[in-house]
Amino acid sequence: MRISRLALIPAAALAFAAPLTACSSDDAATDTETAEVVTEETAESTAEETEAVASGSDSDSSPVQVVATTTMLGDVAAQIVACANPESTATTLMPIGADPHDFAPSSAQVAEMVTAQVVISNGLGLEAGLDDALENAASDGAIVIEIADMVDPIPFGAGGHDDHSDEAKEDDHDDEHSDDEHNDEAKEDDHSDDEHSEDEHGHGGEDPHFWFDMNRMATAAQLIGDQLAVENGQAYADCGAQIADGIRAAEADVRALLESVPADQRILITDHDALGYLADAYGYEIAGTVIPAGTTLAEPSSADLAELVKVMQDEGVQVIFANTADPSALSDAVAAEVGGDVQVVQLFVGSLGEPGSGADNYISMMRTNAELISNALNA
């Protein structure tokens, strides 16, 4: 658990000595007295301005205790509350490197969620292990904000997907399974297990991985600030807008990197279906995934992996983008099966990186991912 106690150091108070006294008989002040008056007024004005800067928006806000689920949301929320009130606290439940899909909270973390004033979650099924804890927090009076549902989510398969997989399936069925009996057997072999159900694969619903569209994350920052402002002061809304502006400004750098890849080379193979928003925003095509699902909890069949190998060979794809939060063994196996110079590039998908990784906050994470993608596909 990462806990940030967000505090600013207040400006030192300025002391002023020996108040001025007026002359009892002369109507005009001496030059010395005039200088002292000007100096005192200037010092008092400077002290007030310094105090206002040091306290930020504290006068327009009350402290708030916020808990966020993912490291990306935790980073954004921490910046907002630090800006609005130095006495606020921001806690991120998931540690660096955790996979949101399979994270399970400790009893202490559940207790922290229940006692928080505001809990910020991703939603849309991303944090499956937190469902019960989020319900308990809401029933105990916490405001639970599910951000993904509020930023115009896209359906799985809408972001840059093509029909290569379907074509491969049709070709395989035409060539190898023209007989009805063989078709039925193949379907039973490939899809009889629960792991290949639509629900577990995560397809058919809305995609929770919205943070790969920086403009949506900027909207999320505004929404968080607005919600915190309802009971805690306008400063939170102002700070949410400020953080949103910073994210939008940084998005220009990310866009430049991703658009440096020629259009005909913007083909992605990923470890699971997590980059739909990025593909949709920057004109990329997702030709396949190692795990044919929107969650890392699903498992591919041998037929799924064989199909992906065929797609990569047919398309001439030489890069698989894996995930720092999960083992890359399956991606490595697919790369070896495809042969040639296929490389596996680790992206920061479900978590920020450690300090020094180049991905230790949300904006640097997105820049680093853009650099990794553009460098790999431009090679």
- Quick one: how many beta strands? 9
How confident overall, as mean pLDDT?
Answer: 80
Radius of gyration: 28 Å
| Strand coverage percent | 5-15%
The assigned CATH architecture of the largest domain is 3-Layer(aba) Sandwich
End-to-end CA span? 38 Å
The amount of helix comes to 40-55%
Order of helices and strands: EHEHEHEHEHHHHHEHEHEHEH
Oligomerization:
single chain
Largest sheet: 5 strands, mixed
Structural class based on helices, strands and sheet pairing? alpha/beta
Residue runs with pLDDT of under 50 for 5 or more positions: 1-58, 163-203
Q: CATH class of the largest domain, please?
A: Alpha Beta
Query: The CATH topology of the largest domain is what?
Result: Rossmann fold
For the record, the count of structural domains works out to 2
* Arrangement of strands in the largest sheet: 1-3-2-4-5
Q: Please report the number of helical segments.
A: 13
Name the overall outline. Answer: globular
CATH superfamily of the largest domain: Nitrogenase molybdenum iron protein domain
How does the SSE layout of this entry go?
Layout: E1 2-5, H1 31-55, E2 65-68, H2 71-84, E3 89-92, H3 107-115, E4 118-121, H4 131-139, E5 143-146, H5 164-176, H6 180-191, H7 198-201, H8 214-232, H9 234-258, E6 267-270, H10 276-282, E7 285-289, H11 302-315, E8 319-323, H12 329-338, E9 343-347, H13 362-378
Parallel strand pairs: 2-3, 2-4, 4-5, 6-7, 8-9
Antiparallel strand pairs: 1-3
